[in-house]
Amino acid sequence: MAANKSKPSPRTPKQTSPSKKAGPAKVVTTKALTAKAPAPTPVARKAAVKPNPAAKAQLAGHSGAPSASLAEGSKAPAFSLPDETGTVVSSASLAGKPYVIYFYPKDDTPGCTKEACDFRDNLKAFNGAKVRVLGVSPDDPKRHAKFKEKYGLNFTLLSDVDKTLIGAYGIWIKKLNYGREYMGVQRSTFLIDKSGRVAKAWNGVRVPGHVEAVLAAL
Fold first, then answer.
1. Residue 216 — very low, low, confident or very high, per pLDDT cuts 50/70/90?
2. CB atoms within 10 A of CB 103
3. Cβ proximity of 166 and 149 under 8 Å
């Protein structure tokens, strides 16, 4: 009798031993794969220049003569400029006579009008001292004529459109107004003596009381 052959039992899946538990899967992040980029450099802001009070005052034209301005004792620059009628007035025609030449920024503006009217109201005293008064600005003769007529100005206004004489006196300067820098005329007055030299200079003029100071210096 043949022996019974036992059928092999089906294989069971291999089970993992509890003692050999798999650790948590390692998560590979994008950070690990990507090289660390340097932090972006912040855009540098333009430095704001804050002048000290003295420098700020000089820019505003209120702190005395700038270094380029004509000093007292200097020879007054020669000039040949048209007046409000278009007639040319020259320094040669004033030779041997004292005169006051004052520079202002613009016709028919508050400060310039007040200054012009102060010279107008005191012109008799200047005439008594035989000193001629000349006003100078970059305005053209036509504008000068309107300004002179409007306020009854009784002295000569010269037109220095190219700022030639203004530059020669060293009063075309950098100004500062509400944080804005620009070039302009520094309000100034010069007393020229008979020899054609600067006898007295006023730079960065404050209008109130200025004409009286000029008269006192004659």
1. very high
2. 25
3. no
Q: Which domains does the chain have, with CATH numbers?
A: 74-217 (3.40.30.10)
Name the amino acid, one letter, at 172. Answer: W
Q: How far is CA 85 from CA 76, 81, 113, 153, 162, in A?
A: 24, 11, 19, 13, 18
117 is a catalytic site residue: no
The model carries a pTM of 0.69
Mean pLDDT of the chain: 80
Q: What is the pLDDT of residues 53-112, one digit of tens each?
A: 333 333 333 333 344 689 999 999 999 999 999 999 999 999 999 999 999 999 999 999
Helix 110-121 crosses helix 141-151 at what angle (to 10 degrees)? 60
Three-point CA angle 24, 26, 28, nearest 5°:
150
User: How many CB atoms are closer than 10 A to CB 200?
Assistant: 16
Which one is catalytic: 70, 81, 94, 112? 112
Cβ 75 vs Cβ 195: under 8 Å? no
Cα separation of 205 and 207, whole Å? 6
Q: DSSP labels for 36-89?
A: PPPPPPPPPPPPPP---HHHHHHHTT-SS--TTSPPTTSBPPP-EEEBTTS-EE
